[in-house]
Automatic annotation (TrEMBL):
Cofactor entry: Mg(2+)
Protein species of origin: Limulus polyphemus (Atlantic horseshoe crab)
Known catalytic reactions: a 2'-deoxyribonucleoside 5'-diphosphate + ATP = a 2'-deoxyribonucleoside 5'-triphosphate + ADP
Keyword Glycoprotein carried by entry: no
Designated name of the protein: Nucleoside diphosphate kinase
Domain Nucleoside diphosphate kinase-like: start-end pairs: 21-158
Any Pfam family: NDK
Length: 172
């Protein structure tokens, strides 16, 4: 019993499990919502094998968006970007999995859809940089910051994906 608990604790702290628990912040932008692409976008991450651990539908306000994009505050497109992001509701999501931040960016494609490869979300589903339908964190520290900005910790759900054994080589 005690040994079992210790083993479970050790397993939960092992590097492999910790790696599987990397999280990223993704958001379907107002144009993605208006164009009916929420299901398509979610499906691409689900089918890859990543795990949804948080999701909400909201109209973001100016203060939240300015904070979210604070690194871009000096850029000429900043005010337009903050306005565009308030044009309608967004779907804010937390996704979990091995290397999900980097792989998520690869699934999304280059910032400017004119440069996004076919097969990526932006490469397949949109045309202009100011209507590029989805946001994804660009690094683990950015993901941590953005997840804390958009979600309360209790809104993120840790749950066991029953098909994990068929997605990852080892789960212990
Ligand atoms: P990404 O969304 O790929 O992380 P980013 O963080 O550099 O790209 O910029 C955030 C958003 O700002 C981007 O999704 C669309 C907009 N944006 C970036 N560069 C732009 C530009 N040159 N003109 C207009 N909008 C731009
Ligand atoms: Mg970015």
């Amino acid at each position: 019993m005690v040994l079992g608990c210790l083993l479970a604790l050790f397993a939960s702290l092992s590097p492999a499990m910790a790696a599987h628990r990397e999280r990223t912040f993704l958001m379907v932008k107002p144009d993605g919502v208006q164009r009916g692409l929420v299901g398509e976008i979610i499906q691409r991450f689900e089918r890859k094998g990543f795990k949804l651990v948080g999701m909400k539908f909201l109209q973001a306000d100016e203060a939240l968006l300015k904070k979210h994009y604070e690194e871009l505050a000096g850029r000429p497109f900043f005010n337009g970007l903050v306005k565009y992001m308030q044009m309608g509701p967004v779907v804010a999501m937390a996704w979990e999995g091995l290397n999900v931040v980097k792989t998520g960016r690869d699934i999304i494609g280059a910032t400017n859809p004119m440069e996004s490869s076919p097969g990526t979300i932006r490469g397949d589903l949109c045309i202009q940089v100011g209507r590029n339908i989805i946001h994804g964190s660009d690094s683990v520290p950015s993901a941590d910051r953005e997840l804390a900005l958009w979600f309360d910790s209790k809104e993120l759900v840790s749950w066991k994906q029953e098909m994990e054994t068929w997605i990852y080589e080892e789960t212990k």
